[in-house]
Write a structure and sequence with these properties.
This protein is 47% helix and 16% strand. It has 258 residues and is of the alpha/beta class. It has 2 domains: 4-197, 2-enoyl-CoA Hydratase, Chain A, domain 1 (Alpha-Beta Complex), CATH 3.90.226; 201-247, Lyase 2-enoyl-coa Hydratase, Chain  A, domain 2 (Orthogonal Bundle). The strands form 2 sheets. The chain has a 6-stranded mixed β-sheet with strand order 1-2-3-5-7-10, sandwiched between helices. It has a 4-stranded mixed β-sheet with strand order 4-6-8-9. Helix 1 runs parallel beside helix 3, helix 4 crosses helix 5 (142-150) and helix 9 (201-214) packs antiparallel against helix 10 (219-233). The longest helix is centred in the first third of the chain and has 19 residues, at 73-91. The relative contact order is 0.11. Bound molecules: acetoacetyl-coenzyme A.
């Protein structure tokens, strides 16, 4: 059973969590398949990945509550580690990722979206971390990434109250970058992904790494990380192509990823 599907087209990949009968809830099988799919992405051809959920109702409605209900303390910790490891793999995928949030993004679903670089939502999207209402904490990075994305006060408010928010509020607090009518979400997300894919891939990857790694250290170390990555772009074919085209006042050739 393919709980996670991956399709590559025109230099972009579309990764779909496909368990609509349970609103794409994440059980251990889904998470393990996600892990394998992430490992299988051809980073030489795919330049941007869109993550979405199957069906029209949910992105992902959370970790699988039925599966979690009988876990022991030790098993709970292992399940958290499984989710955290895979979501960290997604977060550190060398190429950009965009979550196309097409419905409920609750608990592990909100956390999955926050492990992507950018979040675009449909007008029907609902975000939240309902875990404290279930007697647990967020377990796939919600306590860590929410505060980094929307600030500590707002993250604490949302996590302590377990209040769900609709797309306009998610936009207002900066959790998502844009909201579209449901029927336009994928087209708009693909448009953004293609625009990213049209830029110099080595430079785009370096930007992702510089931002992600730089946010974990002080500004001096962050600047040094940027310098190294900035330097690494020079002498690439794409840098020579783009800069010589600018100097010669012509359009550059398509980027070749080397
Ligand atoms: N786990 C397991 N099954 C789930 C699920 C979940 N998180 N979310 C939905 N489902 C299942 C339902 O059990 C139901 O299955 P059956 O048809 O077999 O009964 C099916 O999906 C459809 O769901 P509903 O009938 O509940 O649909 P609804 O429209 O009435 O409600 C909803 C939609 C508000 C999203 C509701 O399903 C819901 O509240 N889901 C749980 C959301 C949640 O609490 N998520 C957080 C989980 S904890 C977590 O994620 C921890 C972590 O950080 C890792």
């Amino acid at each position: 059973m393919a709980f996670v599907e991956f399709e590559a087209k025109d230099q972009i990949g579309i990764l779909t969590i496909n368990r609509p009968e349970a609103l794409n809830a994440l059980n251990d099988q889904v998470i393990s398949q996600l892990d394998k799919v992430l490992d299988s992405i051809d980073l030489n051809t795919v330049r941007c990945v869109i993550v979405t959920g199957a069906g029209t109702k949910a992105f992902v409605a959370g970790a699988d509550i039925a599966q979690m209900s009988g876990l022991t303390k030790k098993e709970g910790e292992s399940f958290g580690k499984l989710g955290n490891d895979v979501f960290r793999k997604l977060e550190t995928l060398p190429i950009p990722t965009i979550a196309a949030v097409n419905g409920f993004a609750l608990g592990g679903g909100c956390e999955l979206s926050m492990s992507c670089d950018i979040r675009l939502a449909s007008e029907t999207a609902v975000f939240g971390q309902p875990e404290v209402g279930l007697g647990i904490t967020p377990g796939f990075g919600g306590t860590q990434r929410m505060a980094r994305l929307v600030g500590m006060g707002k993250a604490k408010e949302l996590i302590y109250t377990a209040r769900n928010i609709k797309a306009p509020e998610a936009l207002e607090i900066g959790l998502v970058q844009a909201v579209y009518p449901a029927e336009e979400l994928m087209a708009q997300t693909e448009k953004m992904a293609l625009r990213i894919a049209g830029n110099a891939p080595i430079a785009v990857r370096a930007c992702k790494k510089a931002i992600n790694d730089g946010l974990q250290v002080d500004i001096e170390k962050g600047a040094a990380i940027e310098e190294g990555l900035f330097g690494s772009c020079f002498e690439t074919k794409d840098q020579k192509n783009a800069m010589s085209a600018f100097v010669e006042k012509r359009k550059h050739d398509p980027f070749v990823n080397c």
